Amino acid sequence: MSDFISSFWSYYIAVIALGGIVWCVYLLFSQRAWLKRDVKAVESTGHVWDGDLTELNNPVPRWWTVMYLLLCVFALGYLVLYPGLGSNPGTLGFTAGKQVLQEQAALNERIQPVYERFREMSIPDIAQDAQARDIGQRLFLNNCAQCHGSDAKGSRGFPNLTDNDWLWGGSPEQIQATITQGRHGVMPPWGAMIKPEEASAIAQYVRSFSGLAHDPLRVNAGKRGFDTYCVACHGAEGKGNPLVGAPNLTDGVWLYGSSEATIVETILNGRDNQMPAQETHLTPEQIRLLTGWVWGQSNR
Which CATH class is domain 186-275? Predict the structure, then answer.
């Protein structure tokens, strides 16, 4: 896919690149005395300092001109072989993305012996091995800390990986599946079916699950709304369902916050959260070491 929003910009860049080379060649040839132009060997610019220091206008040396002409030839060859003329990919088909993938493959091949001793180890054993933990932590910092934080304690919208509360299950197998394939958690918006005052009552009922301050006069109304719209995913007792990533509402752990306003916002507008799959750029061995480190954060 082209990086340009229209073909105009591709042609624009190509014209500038080629025009610069053409202008350079023209400038070099137009200023050369040895091309039969009437140019003095040495002439003064008229600038004199301290009475005897004169600025001269010497002709460009031939070797200098030849060098720049060769550079122009090199530039033309480069633009033929490599991408440089707008969206033209060049005859070699080089891209920075392909180069990165090739370098990653070469690196993975070189470090493969490092992972050999962990191949038959279970995830709990990996979590107890000092070298494996060091490697797993570095993998986490490079690939996961951007969302979950360098301490793995997450932030608003990104789960805490150290508290033993898991949306999709916290067994080694479940964590490995999450890292490998990613997760896509969706809370559907109910704004078209639930009025704000009804959502507020449901929020009061939900807050009562984990002992948060709530209005007991609205709890019954909230329970009716919860049983109608929420029980299918979160269960009759609000304990959630790891098969669909529905959070447990009774444990005091809140991904987006526990205030009434936040819960009402979630009910009316829904949530859409995606954990990207790591199998596209991590090897199976790296994923196992990363799984061991993550699992170990809540199973020390």
Answer: mainly alpha
